[in-house]
Amino acid sequence: MTVSKEQKIVVFTELKDSDQGLIVHGLKLASIFKKELCLLYNYRPKQKKQHDEFKQKLQNYAAIVKQEVPKQKVSTLLLSESQTQLTDLLAEDYEAIIVVVNSLNFKDYSTALAETSIPFLFVHPVSKIMDYNHLLQPIDLRKEISDSSLWCSYFGRFNAAQIVTISANDKTREAKQNVLKNTELTRKLYEKFKIVHKRFRGSKSSLRNVFEALELALASDCNLLVILGSSNITPLDLLIGLPERKVIKGAGKLPVMVINPRKDNYILCD
Length: 270
Description:
By secondary structure, the protein is of the alpha/beta class. Helices cover 43% and strands 20% of the residues. The protein folds into two domains: 116 residues, HUPs (Rossmann fold, 3-Layer(aba) Sandwich); 119 residues, HUPs (Rossmann fold, 3-Layer(aba) Sandwich).
């Protein structure tokens, strides 16, 4: 297929019935940001003989999308890449800007998430929560909070989303200063674009701030939780599970966008 240099919302399909829900969420995002929808299947090398079968299934998906939403630009992409190389390829060669994946299969995407420069949106396949206009954002001491703030601002600008922030309550002077700086920079960004927002100071430190944000999200009308992934992955994390994995599992049907703080993130083109 001919690859167009147009930013895309990429849906990681699994060629299962659960794909339908993921595609609907992808369509919603494509509509919000006025981007092309790309349906991806990344098969294992040992599945090479099924290449034509996979291609046909993707084309069938695309045909249904075109039938239901004729004005939506849609493409398909069939790859066989390692998880460590896949996201860079999607960003650099295919202009992917958001990746939609099945939240029930976090383990399948954890390697790609660790390498990505594109936000991953984890969606439960039967979730009907897709207005994406009431966001909740935890703010901790990391400077990469500016990346999550930027993505929240995109939803504010293009989808009239309202944003609630909950700032960490750290004890050391340096940590407090970093949280305050991030909170103020985020406030200025939202005010610049006239985005409706509310600010809360949480009771947890930066290490637990994301879990307090999850509790607030589930107890409110939030329809998207936007978080940073892990800055450092330790052997203990691999043993007991990454914090983002626990958040996604705890979120249930609430969509969670995870932004990788270890990579420079691509930005949305207006």
